[in-house]
């Protein structure tokens, strides 16, 4: 029984000593904050530097959604009776990368256009 008490008391003392040793550590000096995104003002608004390079990049785009509803009295009678509806969705995604070379500005531009339409043929149509 005395052996068990001694081992428990010794374990408690060891844990207390380890805890005190960790508490006595000096605080580590904090590293300077890393600047992940830097603004590139050479080519206008919206550009930023790609990390680790001198290339500026602008990511832009737009999304558009149109919906419509056509009532029965706007179409010819016959097999086209009943109301109809439809929608159209458009997406444009642009990547514009520019960097300075010995010969001037080198530019790479990529544009992705996508669209989807469902429903009535007249719904979602416009001049653009």
Automatic annotation (TrEMBL):
It is a multi-pass membrane protein. Pfam families: Porin_2 (PF02530). GO terms for molecular function: porin activity. Residues 1-23 form the signal peptide. GO terms for biological process: monoatomic ion transport. Its main location: membrane. GO terms for cellular component: cell outer membrane; pore complex. Keywords: Cell outer membrane, Ion transport, Membrane, Porin, Signal, Transmembrane, Transmembrane beta strand, Transport. It is found in: Cell outer membrane. Forms passive diffusion pores that allow small molecular weight hydrophilic materials across the outer membrane. Consists of 16-stranded beta-barrel sheets, with large surface-exposed loops, that form a transmembrane pore at the center of each barrel. The pore is partially ocluded by a peptide loop that folds into the pore lumen. Belongs to the alphaproteobacteria porin family. This is Porin. It comes from Methylobacterium pseudosasicola.
């Amino acid at each position: 029984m005395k052996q068990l008490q001694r081992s428990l008391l010794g374990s408690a003392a060891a844990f207390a000593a380890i805890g005190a040793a960790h508490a006595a550590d000096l605080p580590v000096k904090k590293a300077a904050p890393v600047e992940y995104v830097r603004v590139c003002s050479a080519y206008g608004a919206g550009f930023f530097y790609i990390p680790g390079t001198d290339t500026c990049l602008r990511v832009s785009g737009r999304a558009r959604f149109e919906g419509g509803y056509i009532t029965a009295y706007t179409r010819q009678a016959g097999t086209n009776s009943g109301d109809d509806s439809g929608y159209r969705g458009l997406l444009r995604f642009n990547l514009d990368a520019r960097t300075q070379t010995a010969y001037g500005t080198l530019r790479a531009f990529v544009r992705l256009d996508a669209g989807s339409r469902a429903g009535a043929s007249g719904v979602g149509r416009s001049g653009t």
